[in-house]
Amino acid sequence: MGAPLQHQASIISTQFHPDGSRILTASHDRTARIWDSRTGKPLLDPIKLPEKDSSAYFAPDGTFFVTESVGGGTGNGEVQLWDNEMGRALCEPIVRDMDQDVSVHSYTSADVCRVFAGLSGGHKQLSYISFDIPPSDQPVPAWLADLAKALGGFRLTGNNTLELLRIDQQNSILHNVAATVSADHTNQWPAVVRWLLDYGKDAVVSPSSTLTIEEYVKNRIAEDTIPSLK
Q: What is the rounded CA–CA span in Å between residue 118 and residue 79?
């Protein structure tokens, strides 16, 4: 039996990693921690959370974990994705700057492609927002480095110096990448690139969505509310 899992205040949520090797906890001391399930020793430094009413859970495949914090009257209820090994944030908080007393409840899809955040509080009705997650368990394609060069506008020379790319060079690289990308829509990497490079009328709002930007804009206008028109 391992040592007790010590926080500086009461523990709100506790969950085992899918492989059973680690335990994830969140506490009223405004931290989340990952522990060795056998010894009870902490594996990472405490991860600071914005609110004392925060919880944490592993993604279904255990590749990352999610924290969700209630606004608590401060207006900063948010959902955050974290790296399991280093405890680093994988993105900016994906829900924040909401109205006061916001409750946030998030769910990760079974295929680990999306996070769904449910927002409620104040006089608002419950609503859900869906966020795509970049692929984490698929091999990195060979063309990703070329895509980074084209989007960044620089390439690394043989002398380990950065060379500025001309616009025509960037466009040529993007054209080659687009031609190389697989047409297999079951692979997330090509889906992300097609979404990134598609500027046509059929461009969709996110890599995993079939809703076009044009349809999304029309739907928001049809809602005819102040938030939908912002």
A: 10
